[in-house]
Amino acid sequence: MSEEKKVQLTEAFYTQPEATVLEKMNSSAEGLSDQEAKKRLESYGENALDEGKKKSIIVKFFEQFKDFMIIVLLFAAVISAVFSHDVVDSIIILLVVVLNAIFGVIQEAKAEQAIEALKEMSSPNANVRRDGHVITVKSDELVPGDIVLLEAGDVVPADLRLLEAASLKIEEAALTGESVPVEKEATVLEGTAEDIGIGDRINMAYSNSNVTYGRGLGVVVGTGMNTEVGKIAGMLADEQETETPLKQNLNQLGKMLTIAILVIAAVMFVVGMMNGRTWIDMLLTSISLAVAAIPEGLPAIVTIILALGTQKMAKKNAIVRKLPAVETLGSTDIICSDKTGTLTLNQMTVEALYTDNEVKPATDAVAMDNMALKIMNYTNDTKIAQDGSLIGDPTETALVQYGLDHDFNVTEKVAAEPRVAEIPFDSDRKLMTTVHRLADGKFLVAVKGAPDELLKRCKQVLLNGQTPAMDDTQRQEILTTNTKLAKQALRVLGMAYKIVDAVPAEMDSDVVEKDLVFAGLVGMIDPERKEAAEAVKVAKEAGIRPIMITGDHRDTAEAIAARLGIIKEGDDDAVITGAELNELTDEAFAKVVEHYSVYARVSPEHKVRIVKAWQQEGKVVAMTGDGVNDAPALKAADIGIGMGITGTEVSKGASDMVLADDNFSTIIVAVEEGRKVFSNIQKTIQYLLSANLGEVLTLFIATMLAWDTLLPVHLLWINLVTDTFPAIALGVEPAERDVMSHAPRGKKSNFFSGGVLSSVIYQGITQGALTLIVYKMAIEFPAHTAANMPNLSASALYDLQHGDALTMAFATLGLIQLFHAFNVKSIYQSVFKVGLFRNKSFNWAILVSFLLLAATILIPGFNDLFSVTSLDGYQWGIVAGTSFAIIPIVEIVKFVQRRMGKS
């Protein structure tokens, strides 16, 4: 397509007269010729969306190895294999890394399908006028300049500038977020393209929206990627995935560990060389240090914890598409939520009825002969399907549902008093009229429509069965009630009637719709979900700020937000429209973004801008939504949350998590699970790193003192067996009771926040010190002496004593970590308060780990494999007592910390 045509398809046709639009599109009301349509199809291409680039399974698999910690582990595996000639360590490390990658691929196997879902939404056929005749063609064969006919039930096949509109209503909720179908008119709009948002372009029909009422005719002004839906597809393709806090923290942790390992290994290497040891010996010792320092199983353990978190969340109707999303939820500061279908039901519902000078809630009883109830059901084109579902305009179905809820069976009533004539709804007069034959031979003229227009045609008012003349006081009372209901964001319709002797000869508005009796008003709204207000309250208590973003009108958005508790009633300073947002530069918006909690009449571009403005403030942003218009913002957010029931495939495809029940409160449940997951990952990291620090210090100090202690096989066994099971079990610890009373940790926090780093340091030092003490005691006070082993030579006796010391140090280091696992159940709270044995998985993990540790010493044959000796009761007593000492030591430190105000 030429550059000229690209410009042509992006013009603001809604501000131009029909004749000008047809001229620019080089078309006419008779449509294009078949030959011209074929030429344009070759030039413009099919009316379809571009496919996004797909990644193969192989590419996705290798992308899992980009993680910094994974690179460190791979490097350690290679070094270990090359220099130590012991491939067992390398094989185990590689196995852990590959399993981690497989987990990631499985979770993301169904990753980005947003563009494909957009394509599937396309209408299969369209009625077009070509060569002066109406024919049906596939929607992907439409070209700019085609004249398209629209009828109720159609899906709009491309972006159209309307040339004709007869009572035309189009439902655009998936694109604009507005819950009520838009009344369309073939008119020229005044203003600039920036001033007129998508929801206000009443002379346009947009691709993939639904015609709910009337008929229309329009000229195609945008196809494929040049439609509004196409622009969204382009935004999805261009939008970069945000890096989750989990990935950032793991990368940061990997870098910190690498630096620490290199520094310690270099110091130990130099000191060892100065003490006369060979460089080969010191290189292998440094590798042992690396094995001790690197938590080989951490990536896999984190993946397992996240996977277990996804399973729990799935049972609570939160389906996680990408593993890191579990943890990201826990750090959420801001939840930007679409209104329609997310905070509300996306289902128009009657909320109030005004009759006999009284406003009644929808739940109050209504008499069967109430005229307002009859009129709202009679002047209605809703169809009732065999399964009882209602088909038609959402406003009209709401009125019929209200009737059914009050035992008014419209099917039976209309059968008894059938419709014999009508004047369809017209957007100019804003009224609809039906005429019904009554049992006494007279006829009921029932009129429904805009209250202000209806009142102009009323001369009487129905009050308690009487019909007195309507005076100015009564008229003002009705208008005041109308205004009051409208300020509550209710959509208000009026009902009026008259009884005539015969069907009017001419069904003309001026003749039929006059001298009416006012019967009442009905107020409708897309109501908030019952559980949403409580969810908003819990979110605020958890320090999370809910933000409403909607394509609906300002008054409606403000009213719903106030009812939900997002803003205080009357706090209109917290509300901003898309048009007002357009007037702010990014810099100016960044300065005031914290002032606003409600955004009304916004476009998809606005939603992305809002999300990014909060992200620039350092906030972790979650975005919920169900429509096509939400997809770019869902992808741009730190975590996108789609709706499983009402959500489009596009929004679900762009999301990190999908709510199976469309329940906003499920998000809060998921946030709690996310916080628990992060807390448990912190516990796992605290456990692993304090244990590894104990190992590093033991090996480092022993080397500095020229002590020969802890072989690489000991460290690997402790790291991959004794450590792993308790670490995984800590990942399924129940949430601490106050998990939702803390403010979100935000982006600035990391795995070492909240006292974890200081705990790792002092607990690691304690473990190393206790291990070295046991080793030194075993050397200084050996169980085997020359007195009780007189037949052994001095060298054999030394080997036996050293073997005992090595075994006791190995057993102490392993056992001390198992006892320490109980300490890690809470950073500051006493383990006796948190609960020693309430986590069954943890109890089994400790038992299995202990048996695996003991097996290396107690089972014959394992001794030689692990270079250990059998210990007697005295030696086991020293090992057990010293190992258990970690619990009272940490309890004392926690007690002091709590007294200092930490919690």
Walkthrough of the structure:
By secondary structure, this protein is of the alpha/beta class. The protein has four domains: 1-226, Calcium-transporting ATPase, cytoplasmic transduction domain A (Distorted Sandwich); 246-311 and 671-735 and 750-900, Calcium-transporting ATPase, transmembrane domain; 318-344 and 529-662, Rossmann fold; 349-523, Calcium-transporting ATPase, cytoplasmic domain N (3-Layer(aba) Sandwich). It has 37 helices and 25 strands. α11 runs parallel beside α29 (712-722), α28 packs antiparallel against α32 and α31 packs antiparallel against α36 (873-884).
CATH topology of the largest domain: Calcium-transporting ATPase, transmembrane domain
Strand content: 15-25%
Based on the coordinates given, report the CATH architecture of the largest domain: Up-down Bundle
- According to CATH, what is the class of the largest domain? Mainly Alpha
Relevant CATH superfamily of the largest domain: Calcium-transporting ATPase, transmembrane domain
**Structural classification:** alpha/beta
Instruction: Supply the number of helical segments.
Output: 37
Termini distance?
65 Å
- The percentage helix is 40-55%
Low-pLDDT runs = 1-8, 110-123
On the 0 to 100 scale, the average pLDDT is 83
State the shape.
Answer: elongated
Strand order within the widest beta sheet: 8-25-24-23-9-20-22-21
The structural domain count equals 4
| Rg measurement, Å | 37 Å
Number of strands: 25
Question: Quick summary of this structure?
Answer:
The protein has 37 helices and 25 strands.
